Amino acid sequence: MIWQLAQMLWVGGVWLLHIGLLPVLGRVGLAPLLIDEIDGMLTALLVGFSAVCVTFQALVLIQAEGLVSLWRDIRGQLLVMSLYACGMYFVVRLGWPDAGQWLAFSYLVLGFSGLVLVLQPVPGWSGRVCEAHP
């Protein structure tokens, strides 16, 4: 259950911010400079929150499948890539503030990693319905 909750929060938040919230703020009539300021602040907060949720998901995967699953399982590889994307976002944001295209790239890597992760099964769940045997 923690896997699905964490996944819903960070993947949904990443996509909702840029597909839902920011376009609505533009249509409401807020000044573009204010929207850019809100975008920068919320994006940084959301990437940090995503890193925490991805860490929880990695711990759930390790508990269910073992430590090797981080490298051999597609879910583990996507989680590691998401953590790298979060780290790259903050390294670029702090060390190279004029590189907006790299911030956007790392944010897109994070978002698309989350979308592919949503399509994967939950660790420890086979997907079969339990049947009573007589």
Write a structural description.
With 134 residues, this protein is an all-alpha fold. It has one domain (2-118). 79% of the residues lie in helices and 0% in strands. It has helices at 2-28, 32-65, 69-72, 74-95, 100-118. It is elongated and about 50 Å long. The two termini are 30 Å apart. The mean pLDDT is 89.
The low-pLDDT segments are none
The percent of residues in helical segments reads: over 70%
Into how many domains do the coordinates divide? 1
DSSP strand content: under 5%
Give the total of beta strands: 0
> How widely separated are the two ends?
30 Å
Overall pLDDT confidence: 89
Could you state the order of secondary-structure elements as H and E? HHHHH
- Report the biggest beta sheet as strand number plus sense, adding barrel if it closes: none
Q: What would you call the shape?
A: elongated
* Derived structural class: mainly alpha
Cα Rg: 17 Å
Count every helix, treating DSSP H or I runs of 4 or more residues as helices.
5
Which key features would you list for this structure?
single chain; 134 residues; mainly alpha; 5 helices; elongated
Structure summarized in a few sentences:
The protein is an all-alpha fold and 134 residues long. The protein has helices at 2-28, 32-65, 69-72, 74-95, 100-118. Helix 1 (2-28) packs antiparallel against helix 2.
Give the helix/strand layout.
Layout: H1 2-28, H2 32-65, H3 69-72, H4 74-95, H5 100-118
Helix pairs in contact: 1-2, 1-5, 2-4, 4-5
